[in-house]
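So, can you check this one?
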Amino acid sequence: MSITPEFSRRLPLHRLGRDAYTETVEATPEECARIAKRLELPGIQSFSCRYRLTAADKGNILTEGWLSAALTQICVITNEPFDDVVAEDFVFRFVPLEQYLEDEALDIEAIDEQPYEGNDVDLGAYAVEQLALALTPFPRKPGAGLEQAVDEVPRDVGEEEDDGFRPFANLSHMMKRSD
């Protein structure tokens, strides 16, 4: 059983030559609706991604991308929908599946790697993955704030009468005893 991505634009790898190859993918309104459903967003008005792919040795492909999306999110403070724009750039490397080592993908300093299989890559599906990573986890509508939130401890805390209660006073004594 194969899963059909919400947004698919397959690029045959034979198009890649010695020079960098550029490709722009843009979602239709129907695809935007499917992507919004997958990402649990109220809506996506537009979504596109521009790629520059450079073939390297052993089937590796250096991939640079620039995505932009006009979308609607729900404010975590007011629970109201608001329009937002996401613009993000990214770099990763397509690696043939047989060369992909998941342990190496954990190196923070290394370029991210995405395995591929066959003679093409799906630029649309990878664009959706990058959009999901670019979304703010706790979106806030412009101007929405927590008016009742405390950003710092008031200065008069701890200046009240000393009642003698010090829950951690004996810890240093206990630490010395264990030496």
Summary: The helical segments are 29-38, 123-134, 171-178.
